[in-house]
Amino acid sequence: MNKNHRVPSNRTLGAVEVKSKFGAEFRRFSLDRSKPGRFDEFYRLLQHMHRIPNVDLLVGYADVHGDLLPINNDDNYRKAISVADPVLRLFLQRKEEADYSAFGLDTLTRPKKTVLAAMLLRPDANRKKPLVIISLPRDFRPVSSIIDVDILPETHRRVRLYKHGQEKPLGFYIRDGSSVRVTPQGLEKVPGIFISRMVPGGLAESTGLLAVNDEVLEVNGIEVQGKSLDQVTDMMIANSHNLIVTVKPANQRNNIVRSGGAASGSSGHSSDSGTSFYGYSSPGIALATTPADIIQNFHPEELESDEDDEDLVMEVDGEAMPIPRTSSASCTIPFIPRYMPHLDLRTTNGALASHNRSGSLRTLSTADSGLEGRSLEEEGTVITL
Amino acid sequence: MKRFRRHGQESHRDRIKQELYGFNKTVEHGFPHQPSALVFSPSLQLLAIGTRSGAIKLYGAPGVEFMGLHDENAAVTQVHFLPQQVDLVTLLDDNSLHMWTLRAHHGVSELLETGRFTLTGPPGAPPSVTRVTAVLTHSSGDMLFLGTEGGHVFVVEVPGFRELEERNISLENVTNSLPEDYGGRRILEHVESLQENPVNPLQVLIGYGRGIMVIWDLERHSAVKHIPATQQLESVWWTEDGGHVLSSHSDGSYCRWMVAGEGTQSEPEKSEVPYGHFPCKAISKIIQLPTEQGPPFLFLSGGMPRASYGDRHCISVIHSKTHVALDFTSRIIDFFVIRDGPDHTGDPSALVVLVEEELVVIDLQTEGWPVIQTPYLVPLHCSAITCSHHVSAIPLKMWERVLSAGALQNTHYSKKPWPITGGQNLSPDAPQRDLLLTGHEDGTVRFWDASGVCLYPMYKLSTAGVFLTDAEPNDNMNQCTEGEWPPFRKVGCFDPYSDDPRLGVQKIHLCKYSGYLTVAGTAGQILVLELNDEAAEQTVEATVADLLQGQESFRWKGHTRLEVREEPVTFPPGFQPFALVQCQPPAVVTALTLHSEWKLVTFGTSHGFGLYDYQQKSNVLVRCTLNPSDQLAMEGPLSRVKSIKKSLRQSFRRIRRSRVSLRKHHVNSAAKVQEANARLEAELAEMELAPVQRKIEARSSDDSFTGLVRTLYFADTFLSDSSHHTPSLWAGTNGGSVFAYQLRLPPVERRSEDPVSAHPAKEIQLMHRAPVVGIVVLDGHGSPLPEPLEVAHDLARSADMQGCHQLLVISEEQFKVFTLPKVSAKMKLKLTAIDGSRVRRVGVAWFGSSRSEDYGESGLTVLTNQGDLHVVSLPGVKLQVQYPCIRREDVSGIASCVFTKHGQGFYLISPSEFERFSLSARCVVEPRSLVEVPSQTPGTTLPRAQPDGPSVAHRNSTRDTDDVAVLQEIQKSLEGYQPTFLENNVKSALAGGKVLTNGD
After folding, report:
1. Which of A79, A193, A355, B350 has the most CB atoms around its CB within 10 Å?
2. Which residues numbered 835-894 in B keep a CB inside 8 Å of some CB on A?
């Protein structure tokens, strides 16, 4: 829409011209380029200018290429100011009008450490589409990543699929096959495990990091060589909440090329003999766009402490909470009738009908205690978390 | 420094591990699967059985057992002991001969293969020339006569397997000696039988398939006599006085022939078809044995009238006026007769019959010929085994009560001791009394003494009497009517037919202290039984447990509930049912636990679980675990079977289609053949492209059978707060859920009146959703809680109630320890994530150190779906050891595994055999027995040799010396080149090695 470039002479000026659009209304003002201030100040200024003090806003701006980019922190605010040429075009949107179904479901519970800021501000390819809702970086959630690029041979790829709590199925199938390996004795045909099918719309397919006929080499750091198809299946399912698969892609043309080249291709050449015919025609998708400068490494201890593996302990009324919880205040029920082990063998060992009615007084007291206990029970929480 | 120290600790731990754990497959209990050959050595008093899978098993006195396995995967077709020796020869159906010996080593005999041999014919000869059909071990003990399909008899020296070519009796030799007028002289067919003259070792009878028999003189190398039987020959018996030959034939007849006199005898002295008039089946084996006074015993196998009784498996025993056709439960493999007396030449005392599914021994000296109960080789599978349960260290009192209840059931057995007495059992006495309980398809529970090497039947409990079934107990077919012909008498107990599959026993739990037993079955029935020494007549009260709890959207499509007898039933002494719970829907019971101290039984199915108070005979709790979206669980077993059938049908169709398409294209013209080949290739390629594949998907709550209850557990522990421990019930499901209930029991004196109550306390959902297969609570010391009443009987240290208890949840994939009462994860072992194997069976065991008497550790014994055994330490849940045990394809073997409390276990290697194994270094039950060479001095061994097997001989002394002289002469004539041939010491030295050359 607004692609009219101006001469950069205006850059020398100290002020940035701001044109802010909210709904059908425009506001114009200027900012000092050298002292832009913080994002929250800017945000309040916008609310003030548009006279919408209590409306939550999504702030976006058009950059030099005409792309709509978000402003939601100090960094991208400063960036927006610095690239304004000279007019900074802002587009404001009500947050509640944004389509939240596109964002992650558990935005509040997810800890910050899993956020990968740098991956998120990729330019959107399709300009013709109506306004794309761009959320806060921490509202994004990784669904997959390539990790350990620095230590793996270039021919291999270690892919991490984040299942989290989402509904999307992992969505792939594996099969038996055979591959050719270089050994000190020469070429050797060995059995291997291969990806045989992708479920359309599944997590595996949507990431584009796995493809049909990729050979599976490891599951969560454990080699699959010598294991049966069923064993590998069980390993993958057991790790499904945080599955890390090392594959040798059937399509070797999208491999990440490293400048360092520190890792040596230790396991040599291998290829699925059954697939060489059409292996290269399989669609290798998003690899080219994956930023090569993000290197994530897989640490075994991460697996041990993975927070996804938390079991749920439920109370009687069904409210669920993850364990362990930090609150250590355990409320104890003051009066619970205590069970006395029946150690008297004469009574337990057969003659059932003989012992009874020994004292009505005691009966009364036990009935009382039973009642008290029950009333406590009905209140629900006997649980001490 | 630090690294060194840690290394030291590790090696210390390794040493402890070595002292605690050790894997051995120790003994096979039960009846060998698919037996194919039988032989008995009177001198050793040992019985040998060969099987279709190439195993050879020797049995003597109870506890004396040996087992060997041929490397070839071929069936054993014949087994023969060498007379008076500890060696035996086996013939496999790949035509190879194998020599086995029992060698004493450190005072214990071992069965070893010492040599193998295959006959080689002249170059260019067809294979039938050397295909062995009959084997005779000559009474000299060093010659084998091998009759072949081509009609030749080869002579081989043993134990070294050296062919004595000059002694072979070729078909040409025999045919040339035949009289011209014998019609069938051109075709004699194969050698059917080889028999040695019991009184003259120089004469051997060769019986040919066509019927003719030739008595051959070994010394003169010529035929002495021809016996021209006209019917197809089945077997030959040379009576022990040497005067007569009995032959049995394929038309159901047998003949008696006089041996005396040279030349051809044209007519038999006697010819009879015992079940005659109408066509009869073959008599496959005939034996006649004399008695001291009175008429001989005649044993005939088969010979039944073809049309009316052709399907019976019979052995007829005829003695004087008594004639009985013993009607067996399955195909007869072979039989032999044991004889009295120090030389085993007296009256027949017992008939031993090996049939396909059991071994039956008949006492021939007691009126009515009763059956002798076998101490081993018991048919575990007389009704198919559906589950098993092991109870260690049974108190003596309880043991005796079960024994006496069992004794009352065995009154129809003979009182005579077991007649096979070979070898000495050197195993130490079992350290404790162990019971193995097997549940069967027909609703019986069998109690086995599993303390030692012999799995001995103690008592049999039948649960069918509680229910109304189609078969009335009175329609017994054992009653034989007067005057019936043939005079059948049913023998044996193998009975694979179940009246009603719903009666099948699925779960068993026995309290060894109180004598309470609970048994649960296929149709959701749970019986509670009590051990009673007196017979009692009582009505069993039935309670229905509605596990659906009002979930009406479901429709059960499976079988109906069993109908309960409403009138009182008389129960014999033993375990008598007094309470019954019936689940609704009547799905198979999948988990069952009894707490005899609290008098509670808990049970689970695929729909939920319940808690039953058997003192007050009322349900305490019923909980539905069903996932509303799980339709499959509701449909019941029948529709599930259908779906499997359907998928099978589809795969068959696919195969057939591909075959049909291939055949269609294989028509005449070359082009079409080429096309077919191309097509075949394409199809093969397609098969390769569409291989078996597995879906990778996380488990979800919508999976099928998530509500199936896998495990139930009672514990007295800290469920809700850390200062009061209370009784609790724990249930684990297929969907990875654990439900915990707090139980409130009235005080002892009010136990029969005040209700027991259960309150939900906790629910744990394992995030990985794998089936929960075990739940254990560990006490303050980290040891598993003792069993109910164990502490009261001073047999276990009471649980530590001071320290913190821990909850161990074992899923198929993980071992996870939680704290109690605050359920927070403490430790875990992720088995599946590490090596892809899943827990199939788990047990808690105590491992004693083999080095120091007072050291031991608790651990989990685990069997995975890969067939591997693991020991996992407690409470640290660390893998200790791993041993491969069962083939991973053997799903039923893995499913049948049961662990003992002392690190042993059992699993089925066939429908009829348990393999016993041990993971403990201290607790090992294995056969240790010694078989000594029959005491004979070398010089006299040969001539005095009492031939073993069928050719038992009786001689007088004058004849003996004659024989010695003659025999030695022929031996000398044989071996001019080998002077040491006769010497026994050389032979025994050679027997030690596999290689036998010329003896130098």
Report:
1. A193
2. 835-838, 865-866, 888
